[in-house]
Amino acid sequence: MRIIVRGAGGKGKCAGSGSDSMIRERRLRQAGLSAGSVADGLSQTGRRRGRKIPCRREKDVRKTLFSALFLFALAAGSQNAAGRFDGVWNTTVTCDAKGNSLGYTWHFTSTIANDMLHGERGDAGQPGYLALDGKINQDGSAKLTASGVVASTQYTHGPLVRSGEDYSYDVKTHFTDTDGKGERSTGLGIYGRPCHYVFGRQTAPTAAAKP
Fold it and tell me: For residue 91, what are the contacts with CB-CB under 8 A and spacing of at least 6?
């Protein structure tokens, strides 16, 4: 183990051998120590106020370790950083009237967290329920899935559809930093009808200016 020897100038060096040992011995003698005290002085000069003084190499190791831990923490923080579209979005879906089916408009909120969207309207499993889910890509494109429960045959297009039945369809969507639009995939158009989705990002309320 290395110890620190401090001279009159107050600067410390890691103890070694050879000429350095002779210099330390001479300094101890000049300080008035007897020959028998020199050995004790050499063993004690590495301590100050009851603590060992670390050598330069030990300090370098600690600096390297600290830097590595800092970089690791920085990388972990970047992985947990919020996605571009994360936040709460006001959501409006409007389905056009078609044939004998009435049109309707619903309003609800959707939340995007880590680029995953989820929105709900109504009570799960009950007539009139609608859930909207999907992943938002970095360019803002998304293929969302709308799934729900038929509320009333008056608002449902297609034969043999009854209230309380489950349904689902895809919504091709594109988001910007502030809004988004989506269109229902109607397939062959036998059961589906046009439905339009509009998204508006909620902004945090601005704090009142201090007088």
Answer: 107, 108, 109, 110, 119, 132, 197, 198, 199
Q: Region 167-189: what's the mean pLDDT?
A: 90
On whether residue 113 sits in a domain, the answer given is yes
Q: What is the pLDDT of residue 142?
A: 97
Number of domains in the chain: 2
Residue 207 lies in a domain: no
Do 151 and 119 meet the contact criterion of CB atoms below 8 Å apart? Answer: no
Q: What is the pTM of this model?
A: 0.58
Check whether residue 98 and residue 191 sit in a common domain: yes
The answer to whether residues 136 and 116 touch, using CB atoms and an 8 Å cutoff, is yes
